Structure formats: C-alpha cells, structure tokens
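Hi,

Apologies if this is the wrong queue. I'm a grad student, and the batch job for RNA polymerase sigma-70 factor, ECF subfamily from Actinoplanes derwentensis produced an output file that my downstream script rejects. I'm not sure whether the problem is my script or the file. Here is the sequence I used:
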Amino acid sequence: MDPAPENTLYGDSPLLPTHDEALKLAYETHGPILLNYLLRLTTGNRAMAEDILQETLVRAWNHPEARTADGEWSRGWLFTVARRIAIDHIRVAQVRPTEQLDERIEDHHTTADDIDRLINTREVRDAVARLPERLRSALIEIYFQEHSVAEAAQNLAVPEGTVKSRTFYALRALHEDLVAHGFTV
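Support response: The file is valid. Your script probably expects a header line. Output copied below for reference.
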C-alpha cells in the first residue's frame, strides 16, 4: 500500500497543479476582482490596493486553509483576508502624519528663507558692483540680460572671444570676492 501524499493541497498529487501554478492561477482568477474590491476599500489608492493584493496572495500561499480540498482557492478566504489587511493599512495611514511630496516643500518657505535670500542677493549685487567695469558689463550681458555671446559682443562692441574670456574671469573674480567676504558658495 502506497503512503498518502503528505499534503495534496500543494500539488504533491499528479492530478493537482504545482503550488506555483496554483498561486499563478489564484492571481489570474481572483486578482482582478480582489483589486477592484480593494480599490473601493482604499478610495482609489491603487498603490495601496496593489500592496494589499500582493500581501493577501502571499498569506494565501502560506496558509493551507486558503484552498479547498480539491485545491481551488477559496474566494471567501481571500476576500476576508484582503479586507482585514486593508483595514490594518487604512488604520496605519490614519495614525501616520500626512506625507508631503518634495514639490510641496518649496511652497512652504519661511520668513527666514526670505531674509536669507535678501541677504544673499545683496551680497551678490555688492560683489558684482566691485568688479571692474569690463568684467561686470560682460557678466551682466550674459547672466542678467540673458543675451547670447554674439548679442553681448555686439552690445559691448568687442569680439565674441573677448566676451567669453571676460565672463570667465568675471565669474572667477566674483567667486573670490564672495568667499573673501565670508559668503559660502
């Protein structure tokens, strides 16, 4: 007499699918329905619903009671577990403070930020004013007036190469001046 398989629920029988095949079948059969159910529970939060669906299927994989005697997945078990996991996720989300996206952080600047910006602006303007006229005019044309090198050369009545070199030296002198006045660049 042959001994009975230890666990026919996990596909040890040649008549039943393997455990991996059964789990794939559970996802294909019950996944879309469970996902729609979870989307309603999570008020349309697709990421949370997908996480809960995945966690439900992992729990089903680890619990033999999730399958009937013939190896089919119990839809009732899956929905019950999914609902309980969803409730847990929703409760955790309600307790946790609201997460702010990086985009919103910029909208919440403080008065200290405004003061720092004013101080920085004043420091840079003073440093630009201390530059020699030939360097300052090239820098203003390129960075503040946003002219191209060709336009700046025409406005300053100098060759384009001269505009490029004056801009280079102006930036270097500006950096040195700001550092010398205690400004951290």
